[in-house]
Amino acid sequence: MFTSCYFLGIFNEYVTHSIREQILLAVITLFGRLYTLYLIANVLSIFGLTGFSDSFYEHNMSVLKDYMDSKGLPYGLRKRMLRYYKFKFQGRYFNEEEIIKCLSKKLRTELFLFSARKLFEKVPIFQKLHTFMLGVLIAHMNSDIYSAKDVIVSLGFNPEHIHFIASGTVAIINEHKHELCHLEDSDDFGGSFFVGEDNRFVMVAVENTEVFSIHKKLFLQLMRLYPNVMKELCYSQMERLNQIRKVEREVEQERRDVLSGLVEGDTHV
Hints:
The chain is α+β, with helices and mostly antiparallel strands. Helix content is 57%, strand content 14%. The protein contains nine helices and eight strands. Strands 1-8-3-6 form a four-stranded antiparallel sheet. It is elongated and about 110 Å long. It starts with a helix and ends with a helix. Keywords: Membrane, Transmembrane, Transmembrane helix.
């Protein structure tokens, strides 16, 4: 009887001076407590209370892991972010702005440097710059994330920055709302000032797109040290502009042909 009392944690006046009995009763009491906790857990699970915080935590961790996978972050940085988010991460959805906001300043800097380093590895002209110059560019660049259908550069607006696509896709649309081409990873835009052209296009994100930007005046000052690189960039801008103009002419001619065909059809009727 007194054994059941110890197992269930019920007060009992029985006192023993035997070491063996004291150890045995302590073990019985411990198992009794564990069994009680097990019963409470089962009762809570019936009402859907248990696992709520666990599933919420697991969901948040799953979102964070998806985010890190999409960025291709190295193992060391992943481990630190997971540890940091153990208690801080509260978002329910894939909200990059909230994720970045919760990070410490040091982790934000590391994440920015990692993303910028990936960009520099993709863009050919950056591979021709010295490490010191790359560091200067990183220090003066800003990173922005655009969702699908976000307008990055408006029609007729001459941007003050040149943009480099780290990941994602950007559509170039003319004033007649014709989609002329797509720019993707490592492509740049907003550099029409290199070739003395006003901006006649709208730049719209097709999907989630990360873009690094730097002010054009500062960029031109820094590139004075690399005239050959600047010449190559101007050439690529002119070449792309010529390709876009060609596509635009073809689209316009096709539109005229369609209108002409409709007019002729009405005349025959």
